[in-house]
Amino acid sequence: MNIEALQCEVEKVSALYAERHGISRTNDWLMLKLGEEVGELTQAYLAKTGQTRDRGRDPVDIEDDFCAELSDVLAHVLLIATRFNIDLQAEVDRKWLVWNTST
Q1: What predicted TM-score, i.e. pTM, was given to this entire model?
Q2: Which of 51, 61, 71, 95 could cross-link 57 (Cys pair, CB 3.0–4.6 Å)?
């Protein structure tokens, strides 16, 4: 799946979630939600790297949490890009891949 298709799929899920829970997905909500998800990713990272208590969780659950939170952060970045009509592939090409000298 390419980035644009992934953005569309994530947008559909987010809209459904918001409808079910009575959430108004304003620009502010999207940015604040991204911040919340980054915080949860940070917690998961600390658990994964043994820098916080494990809260009785086993290593498999800790790894699953880390992967899930990383996915949440990506999904919210995709939602923000969709909201502001950002072509992420073009921006990654322009900002990052321009430095790839192996191609």
Answers
A1: 0.92
A2: 61
